[in-house]
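In response to reviewer comment 3 from the previous cycle, which asked for concrete evidence that the modeling workflow produces usable outputs, we include below a single protein chain processed end to end. The sequence was submitted unchanged, and the resulting C-alpha cells are shown without manual editing.
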Amino acid sequence: MRIPGRLSPTRLLRLAGLSLAVIACGASLAQATPYVVVDVASGAVVAEQDSTQRWYPASLTKLVTIYVALTAVRQGRVTLDTPIMVSPRAARMPPSKMGFNPGSEVTLDNALKMLVVKSANDLAITIAEGLGGSVEGFADQMNETAARLGMRESHFVNPNGLHDDEHYSSARDMAIVGRALFRDFPEYADLFGIGALRLGEQIIPTHNGLLGRYPGADGMKTGFTCAAGFNVVASATRNGRRLIAVVLGYPNAKARTLKAASLLDAGFANSSGGPSIMALPSSSGAAPNNRTRVCGAHREQVSEDDYAVPVAGARAEGDNAAAYFAAQGLMGQAGGGQGSGVAAIQAQMGVRPSFEPINVFVGRAPGWTGPALASWGAAPPPAAAASAPKPTKAAAVMRRKPSVRGKHAVKKKPVTKALAKPVVRPAKTAE
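The workflow returned the following C-alpha cells.
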C-alpha cells in the first residue's frame, strides 16, 4: 500500500541518482578553467582567470580561419561568390561536417556560413586548400595573422581545430581574434549571429545556446573536443556596449552556456575598465589534455566536433533552461562576479527560440563565369577575383541579421530556383 505524501522506493532511488549526478557536475564545474571578458571597443579586461594559459581551442580555431578568409576578400584575391572545390582530403574529415562529395563546389560565402553555424570541419579544409594552396600553407597564414594580432599563446596546424598536440591557443588569444573580427570586419558582424541555415529542405541549427536566449547575445563561435572540453567565444551588446566572453574547458554545453551568461552579466554590471587585453602577461607550460575529465576513460567519442544545441524549431528532452540553472544554483556554480547569479540568469534565459533560417546552397553563384579554386593543393590564381561578377543576392545575404520568432516553429520556405540541389552524405553525430 502506498502512503499519500511518501515517495516510493523506486522514486527515492531515482532522486538519489539525480542528486549524485548534480553533485558530480558541480564537482566538475568547480575545477578552475580559463575565462576572460573583454570590452570590444576599448580592449579593457573586465574579468579574467588563467586567460593566458595554453588550451586546446577546438572549433574556436575557425574564427582565425574566417579572419584569414575575409582578409583575402578585402585584398581582392577572392570574392564571396568565388567557388571552391571540395577535395578528397576535405571529404574525409570527421564530423561535424556537411558531407559534400569530392568535386562539389561551394561559394566562399556559403562555406563561411556553414563554418559558423554547422562548424563544418570539411569546409574548413576546403577554404584552407582553396585560399592557401594547402592546409599547411593556410596554417602558415593563420600563424602569421595570429602573430600580427598579438596572439602570443597560439600555434595552429589546421583550420578546423581537430586535436593536435601542437595546435593550441588561450582564452586571451581567442578574445583578441574575436575582437579583431568585429573591429576589422564590422560589415560581416551578422555572420556570427546566424541562428539557422536552410540547405534545400534541411534546417541546420546553431550550436550557440546563447543566441535568442541571452538578452543582447549576437554571436561568435563554440567548440568542443574531449581534449579541450566545451569552449565558447560569446559576444553580447547592451546599450551600445559590446562584450566578448571566452570560456574554456567546461564539461558540457549547458554548463558552458551558463558560465558565459554569468560572466556577461557581471561584465555589463561593471562599468570600470581594467588592464588592456594586450597587456596581460604570457604564461608558460603545455595545454592540459582534458579527455578523461570531460569524456571519461571509457566513453566512445565518435568524432571530436562541436556538440550541437539545436534551436531552430526543434524540441529535445531535458532542455528546460530554468530548471537546469536552478539545479546548478543549488550547487552554487553560476556565480561569475558581482551582479550575476542564478536568479538573474534564470529570469533572462528563456526556452529555445526558433530562427528564420538563412538560405545556403551547393554550387556556383548565379552568373559566375570565373574559375573555381580547386582544392587539390593548387594555390589560388591571383586573377580569380578579376573575372568575378558583381555580388549576388546569395552573397549579400550574409549581412542579413536572422530574426528570432520566439517559441514558434520555423516556417518552411520554398527553395528558390537559385538553390542548387545539394549532394550530401549523412554525417554521424558525436553525442
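Strands lie at 35-39, 45-49, 83-85, 105-107, 196-199, 202-205, 217-225, 229-238, 241-250, 358-360. We consider this sufficient to address the reviewer's concern, and the full set will be provided in the supplementary archive.
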